[in-house]
Specification:
The complex is a heterodimer.
Chain A: H1 2-14, H2 16-53, E1 58-63, H3 83-92, E2 96-111, E3 114-123, H4 127-130, E4 135-138, H5 143-147, E5 152-155, H6 157-164, E6 174-177, E7 180-188, E8 203-207, H7 208-216, E9 223-228, H8 234-248, E10 259-263, H9 264-307, H10 309-317, H11 322-359, H12 367-393, H13 397-402
Parallel strand pairs in A: 3-8, 5-7
Antiparallel strand pairs in A: 1-9, 1-10, 2-3, 2-6, 2-9, 4-7, 5-8, 6-7
Helix pairs in contact in A: 1-11, 2-9, 2-11, 2-12, 3-8, 9-11, 9-12, 11-12
Chain B: E1 6-17, E2 20-32, E3 37-41, H1 48-55, E4 63-68, E5 71-72, H2 78-88, E6 89-92, H3 104-113, H4 121-134, H5 150-162, E7 168-172, H6 180-195, E8 199-204, H7 207-210, E9 215-220, E10 223-229, H8 236-252
Parallel strand pairs in B: 3-8, 3-9, 6-7, 7-8
Antiparallel strand pairs in B: 1-2, 1-4, 4-5, 9-10
Helix pairs in contact in B: 3-4, 3-5, 4-5, 5-6, 6-8
Classes of the chains: A alpha+beta, B alpha/beta.
């Protein structure tokens, strides 16, 4: 076996440029597999991280159903969760430790001579806890603020920076929203950009009562954020919410829900579905380039067999069996493709961080993808090297010796 | 009496190329005993190449029987033929057929790569060196064919042919690509090996080369026309001395 390897290595070294060019197809293919899969894994890891950053043991109730009447309205397209639903949920469902509706309004807000267009979210006093917001300065508004629809707000780091400048504590300042003066009671710590490229810190949080009354005029909620006691009660709470809301919305058995309840796992699955499609797509194209690389190997091995017909004849004459010749050429092909695979993996390791650096695309190279890539490249060598090797093994020694 | 190295009984070989049937050999009966040194002669088309391929176990008879050292070659499959060649036959070709860019020693080791059971690599190297010493090339063992003269390359090929201690050394026009002096030297090596008891069969079309052998078989149209012992046998040592004298004479005049 060692002798076979040595002979194969020598044969490949003899045509070093040709060997390299042949490997190039495999190198490109394997590198794209590595990078492609790393993009998929990276994006998934990123989504998981962002969703975890939303808070712990979270459920989101969204109004509207994704496929109502065959048309996808999208969740939240028609707010239909009433304040009564919200109160009932808080009262009747066990295991809920915090809950907050979310109503949204976009508004021009101003402070001094600065102004900005921002998303104003109306939430309850639980919201900051539920979504793991922390305070850089100041604090949360109270349940009383919510009850009375007081003119108070919490301000996100980006919005504060736009209105007041960097590192200036905005707590105690007044912003004007639709000419109503609102006092800032809390300055939120930054959370960064979410997986859709949205700046989570460009935000103003107000009591939902205030938003509904002063800004949006809504009477229904788009969504509810609910925090439950612990991971083991999530599905129970989810079921209870379903039952409660179906009952309150008077949905007949067998009819579709007009809301949905998602836990974090489901949200992560939902967003990762897109990533998976992307990974499959990249994998598909990488697979094509691997096949092309394999054909390149087959082509060169066929040329090599023809060139070395006389050598094969000599080996057969002195007693090599067909199987010995087959093994020799197969080893060369596998060596070519496996070396290409190794170089491709190296290239992938080099490219993936560049992608992250210059295009801010999260990448993560998993060990399993490396092992898979290497195995695939070796298999390509066997598959595409087999036909040329068989051709060599089947040569007639007399014809091969006579070959010029 | 010992087993003949070669026993051909009514050996026939017919090639079919498309519609045409070519009867290359049309019934040859021949026996070669151990220790013989036989030249098979004939013009092209006489069937001597077919004889060569068959004696070398590269091809099987169409009909008739061929026993090599008692083994019926006609009954063997491809792999068994390969093993038989490996164990019992050493080849020497007209064009040397050494592996390029491979050292003399490694060329000589080549048949042992395919020996069953496998031979340990240290023993392979030992036997290759011994075989190279036999043809006087031990000190060139690390040279590649391109660094060797034609005569030296043919000696490497002979060393390769001998390395598995075959029953038969089979040479196909071994002097065809060599000048007259080197040819005599190569024939000298064959004579020396034959004296040590090695059986040699050689195909040639050169009459004077055939005279270094002990027995000449002449073929024409696929049949043996004559088969007799060589009279006035050339001895390589004497012929070289004569050649030296002639060359000296040319320079003197």
């Amino acid at each position: 076996m060692f002798a076979v390897l040595r002979i194969a290595l020598r044969a490949l070294r003899r045509n070093i440029l040709r060997s390299f060019l042949t490997m190039l197809g495999i190198i490109v293919g394997i590198a794209s597999v590595i990078v492609g899969v790393s993009m998929g894994t990276g994006a998934k890891a990123d989504v998981d991280k962002r969703i975890a950053s939303m808070g712990q043991n979270l459920l989101v109730v969204m109004s509207g159903n994704m496929s109502r009447g065959g048309a996808r309205g999208g969740f939240g397209s028609t707010p239909n969760i009433s304040p009564g639903d919200y109160d009932a949920l808080r009262r009747e469902v066990a295991g809920v430790v915090g809950a907050s509706p979310e109503v949204r309004a976009n508004a021009q807000i101003a402070a001094g001579n600065q102004n900005t267009f921002v998303q104003v979210s109306g939430v309850s006093a639980d919201y900051a806890d539920v979504r793991s917001w922390e305070f850089k300065s100041g604090g949360n508004f109270s349940d009383a603020d919510v009850r009375n629809a007081n003119k108070v707000c919490l301000i996100g780091a980006t919005t504060a920076k736009t209105l007041f400048g960097e590192n200036i504590d905005p707590v105690g300042q007044i912003v004007r929203v639709k000419n109503a003066p609102i006092s800032i009671v809390g300055w939120l710590s930054p959370k960064g950009v979410n997986s859709f490229g949205q700046d989570q810190d460009d935000i103003v949080l107000m009591p939902y009562t205030s938003v509904m009354k002063r800004l949006s005029g809504d009477t229904m909620f788009r969504s509810l954020n609910i925090q439950v006691e612990g991971p083991n009660v999530i599905s129970d709470v989810q079921t209870n919410i379903y039952e409660l809301l179906r009952q309150r919305h008077k949905i007949q058995p067998g009819r579709d829900d007009d809301f949905m309840v998602r836990n974090q796992q489901e949200m992560s699955d939902f967003f990762n579905a897109n990533n998976r499609v992307m990974t499959i797509l990249i994998g598909f194209f990488a697979g094509i380039s691997l096949v092309v690389g394999g054909i390149g190997i087959m082509n060169i091995m066929l040329v090599s067999v023809t060139e070395r017909t006389r050598e094969i004849g000599i080996r057969l004459a002195v007693g090599a069996r067909g199987r010995d010749v087959l093994l020799q050429f197969l080893t060369e092909a596998v060596l070519l493709s496996a070396a290409g695979g190794a170089l491709g993996i190296g290239t992938g390791y080099w490219l993936a961080p560049l992608l992250t650096k210059y295009f801010e695309f999260p990448t993560l190279i998993s060990n399993s993808s490396v092992i898979m890539a290497f195995t695939v490249s070796a298999i390509i060598g066997i598959v595409f090297g087999f036909f040329p090797a068989l051709k060599a093994a089947r040569l007639d020694p007399i014809d091969a010796l006579r070959f010029e | 009496m010992s087993v003949p190295v070669i026993q051909l009984d009514d050996f026939r070989k017919t090639y079919i190329t498309g519609e045409v049937e070519v009867k290359a050999v049309r019934g040859v009966t021949l026996s070669i005993q151990p220790g013989e040194f036989v030249a098979i002669m004939g013009a092209s088309g006489s069937g001597k190449s077919t004889m060569m391929n068959t004696l070398g176990c590269l091809d099987r008879p169409t009909s008739g029987r061929f026993l090599l050292d008692g083994v019926n070659v006609g009954e063997l499959d491809r792999d068994e033929l390969a093993d038989l060649r490996n164990r019992k036959i050493g080849f020497v070709f007209q064009g040397f057929n050494l592996l390029a860019r491979t050292s003399a020693a490694e060329n000589v080791e080549l048949p042992m790569l395919y020996s069953r059971p496998p031979i340990p690599s240290s023993e392979q190297r030992e036997r290759a060196m011994a075989s190279l010493s036999l043809v006087g090339l031990a000190e060139r063992s690390d040279h590649t064919p391109s660094q060797l003269s034609g005569g030296q390359q043919q000696r490497v090929a002979i060393a390769r042919g001998l390395v598995n201690q075959p029953k038969l050394l089979l040479a196909d026009e071994p002097t065809g690509n060599l000048d007259s002096r080197t040819s005599i030297e190569i024939m000298g090596i064959f004579q020396k090996l034959n004296e040590q008891g090695i059986t040699i069969v050689m195909v040639t079309h050169e009459l004077d080369i055939a005279r270094y052998c002990r027995r000449v078989v002449v073929m024409r149209d696929g049949l043996v026309r004559s088969d007799e012992a060589v009279k006035d046998r050339f001895l390589a040592g004497e012929e070289l001395a004569k050649l030296d004298a002639e060359q000296k004479a040319v320079q003197l005049t």
